Every structure is written in structure tokens, then in C-alpha cells.
């Protein structure tokens, strides 16, 4: 047997292929293991070798999974984590940071979260918030803020307007848009995006802490929001005038959303907010 | 200037190609198979990794070459009439 393996070059070459590159023998692997190996072979060949080495050294499949997963996590240059090796076939572990107003998250537990949400008439008990109208108001408020102000980052995070996909999307939104399954162009791009998103989120959290601690700033901030809100009402009425008197009665269910004719008018609620901000 | 290649010359050229030196083959020869253990064990991870990377590159190169050869355009052969069955020619 040994003479055959070491003396016959062709046999030796075939054996080397089966040993170190078993994907040449597709039928020898079940589909899930093959999928993982194909991904590792294409993208992380060191972990491909490690997977095979641990296997031949007698590790159990669970041990191999754990060891290679740890190696992949150590290699990631940003905050991300493969929880199990199977995830490697889904692409890079992306951390979405979108504001949790759409989710059951810490958003409502933070005092600033409920206060800001109340300014925009978001209801804690109603999870399907529709906030694009508030987005315009946020944009108007941002104009009054210093571009470098952390409050700009806070608003950008709350209303998905930073331009950074990781900041603007929650896990659910990312999944619905197919962004969790390896649709990124490259590691370099996602690394830059992640660094930028981390910075924006850090500044947003600083802003909310500042609002909590500084009543004057909070009042000014709320005042800007209210002014932007009334401005949006005037603009919306102007739009109604343009389209004529036959237009549908003006109602809104969120700030700045004049199209929802069936919704209750929330403006009386805003009076209380405005008084408090003043 | 290249003036063509006969079948015998092609075969001779291929036979004269030296065998590729692969670390994997050296490892197999240095650690021959034992009963119940077809592949070598106890090799340092970095040695194994380097041999694997080399093997994968070699596999890819072979696959790429096979693909390129399949895509080569066909060439008309100049065969003497006497060699054709029944002297049939186009």
C-alpha cells in the first residue's frame, strides 16, 4: 500500500487532492458541509485549511465548527460575529443599527426615546409607525443645527436619513431588503460603513444624554421641532390650495403626513408639547 | 517560427513535462498511510495550511487550463487522401 501511494505519481496526486482539496470529490460531502467548504475555499482559504486540519486531527463536527467560527470572528476587522459556522454562507455578519422605533428595543426604555417619540406623536403601543412626514421636519430642524452637532446625528439615526445603510436600517429592514445575505461588494466597503455608522451612533447617544441633562437645550430643540412642524402645515395647506377646493379634507396621522385622510388630527396633542417646550 | 506539430511530437512534449513539485505529495511520501489512517496526522497547522493553499491553487490552475482548452476554436486538419477511409474526401 505504501509503495503504491509513494511510487505512483498519479495516485499520489489524486490522494493529495482528496486530502487537501476535497471539493474535487463533491459526492463525498453532504450539501450543508459542502456549502460551508465552498464558501471558505473561495473567501477564507486559511479557515478552509483549518476546517480540514481539525477534522483530520479527530475533532468532532461541533468542535470543528466552534474552532473555525472563533478563527473567523478573530479575523473580522470590525464589530461583528459569526454565531455558527453555517452563517459564513450567508455572507459577512452585518450589524444594522437603525433606530429601534420600529422594533421592540431599548428605544422605549430610554427616557430620551419616549420624549423624542412623543414630539413626533409616535405611540409606544402602536408599533407600525409611519414617519416619513417627520423626516421632512427633522430635515428642517437640522438646518437650524450646527452640521457638526451631535443632535444632527441623533435625528439622522431616528429618522433613517444619515445616508449610511447600517445606520438607516434596522435588522428587520436590512433582512427585508436582502442585505444580510452577502450582497455587499466587499469587505473594504462594509468596514468603512461600519466605522462611520459606529461614529454616528456614538454621537447620537451623546446627544440624547445631553438632552437629558440640559433642560435649556432640550427646550430649544423642542421649539425648533415645533416651528418646523407649523411650517410643514403651512406648506401642506399651500399644496392643497394649488390642487383646488375639491381636494380631500386635510388630516394627518403623523406629523407632516397630509395624505392620510382617515386619520385623526393630532394637532391638539402638539399644543401640549409646544407649551412644554416653551 | 512555429511550423506545426504532429501528434507524436505533441505526445513527446507532454511526456517531457516535469512533474509538479507539490508540498502535499512530499507530505504524503514523508508520512505514508497507516492502517486506519489514510491521511497523515500530527502535521503542524501552518505546514498543512501552506500545502492546502498550494493544492487549491494547483486545482484551480488545472480547472482553468481545462476550460481554456475546451474553448479553443477547432482547426481543420490537413489529412492526406490516402489516409481517409475509401479515399473519400470533401
Number of strands of chain B: 0
- Write down the Rg of chain A: 27 Å
Largest sheet of chain B: none
Radius of gyration of chain B: 22 Å
Helix content of chain A: 55-70%
- The average pLDDT of chain A is 71
How many runs of DSSP E, i.e. beta strands of chain A? Answer: 0
Give me the number of helical elements of chain A. Answer: 13
Low-confidence stretches of chain B: none
Percent of residues of chain B in helical segments?
40-55%
Explain this structure.
The complex is a heterodimer of chains A (about 280) and B (about 90). The radius of gyration of chain A is 27 Å and the shape is elongated. Chain A contains 13 helices and no strands. Chain A has helices at about 1-5, 10-20, 30-45, 45-55, 60-75, 110-120, 130-145, 150-160, 165-170, 170-175, 185-215, 215-245, 265-275. Chain A is mainly alpha-helical. With about 90 residues, chain B is mainly α. Chain B has a domain at about 25-70. In chain B, about 50% of the residues lie in helices and about 0% in strands. Chain B contains 3 helices and no strands. The longest helix of chain B is centred in the middle third of the chain and has 27 residues, at about 45-70. The radius of gyration of chain B is 22 Å and the shape is elongated. The two termini of chain B are about 30 Å apart. The interface between A and B is medium-sized, with 25 and 22 residues.
